[in-house]
Amino acid sequence: MESLTETRELLMKKYLMQKMGDLVMAVLTWIDYWFTGSVSAMTPEETLNDPFKHYNLLRDNGRFLRSHRNRGWMALGYDEVQLVLRDNRLGADLRKNAFLSKMIRMAADGRTVSFLDNPTMLNLDPPDHSRLRKLANHGFVHKSILSLEPRIVELVDQLLDDIDIAGDQFDIVEVLAKPLPVIVIAELLGLPKEDVPRFQELSHRFVGLTAIGNNELMNVGARAASELHDYFADVIASKRQTPGDDLISNLIEVEEGGDRLTNEELNSTCIVLLIAGHETTTHLIGNGMHLLLENPDELRKLRDDPSLIPNAIEEMLRMEPPVQFTARTANEDLELAGRKIRKNQLVMAVIASANRDPARFDEPEIFNVSRQDLGHMAFGYGIHLCLGMTLARLESKVAFERLLSRFGRLDLAEQKIEFTPVPLNRGRQKLLINVG
Ligand code: HEM
Q1: Domain-embedded: residue 20
Q2: What's the whole-number average pLDDT of the chain?
Q3: What is the DSSP letter of 305?
Q4: Ligand 1 pocket residue status of 425, Cβ below 6 Å
């Protein structure tokens, strides 16, 4: 009876804390709206459907803005985002930001959260970051990634062969954009084929952890993070016993000047490779296909000259970056872009806004597959520049090449486009296309 009362009290406390959190968020949102004219004034649905409009409005108010909602700052201009990402006084170790860690801990409800408990290279600063990156880099040598092309062609062809085209229509996200990157990363890591659906689902849930302020998504994400941790603990133990010819076995063996990855570092490296390399590439293919179908003249250019495909992919990344923003915390009190930032404050670097900054790109709202002024920041910038960008570019190049050569007609089917619910990641939930 006593324990029932305790449970009830605990639940009540949790409920009240959640409600207070929502109230605080609402007040901070209102303050932002008041001071900047637009931050968070849009509904979550509007933010998901057209974040670019939102970012343009914000950038018009200032290229480096105070954001009370994030208890920190937002860099929106191209130069300002670069400044943030290359300044070593700002770090990626988000544990230093008490507000953020507290929100994540609350959502995790006592469970392990990989990037707080066993941070990955994404969330570490030098020298730990440099150490992990150098060791993991062994698996991402440019030449060895490029040698995967024949296997990726085979996989794309298989996935396209398997399509059950009902009425000449299919969902490109479901049949190609989702399975391709996860199969590739699973093969690279040396994971059993039958596990693919499980970790596809886990990594999809995991990204919920980034939805700061959305308790439900964060809770789902935290549960997935702890399941993934247990999953990889088993995989690593078994590969220590019986190594194979794969990235995890190589990472176990790899040594730099007498240095090796510990069990926990191996675990978090596997998680970051799976997460960073999967959903992002899915969104690149889905977002890119949508851009092409909405711009039939650009699609025609690619049909006439398929050698433009790599350039078109860079333009897709610029217009619709799958990672919309990243975050840093100040390691000390500092001055940046003329503003005084206090130690441990959060700074959001809004890649999606930088990529459409009219001060950097001509006609930034126009999708132009032969654009020459590239230099987008979809893969980040500075020491955390994406480790898997060669792989992402290769997978998407093969996907678009095979789609264009297989189908003489590719049209957007009539549908309501739904976006993934996590603001950090920009992607279509599904994309129906008509083919012929
Ligand atoms: C279109 C696909 C991809 C996009 C848009 C993307 C984007 C990014 C961005 C923006 C960062 C930097 C984050 C920051 O500075 O905080 C990053 C880092 C990273 N990405 Fe990617 N990524 C993609 C694909 C991949 C793939 C395929 C892999 C590996 C299989 C991968 C592995 C990583 C890793 C390990 C890091 C951390 C690097 C570090 O901290 O030093 N990514 N990615």
Answers
A1: no
A2: 86
A3: -
A4: no
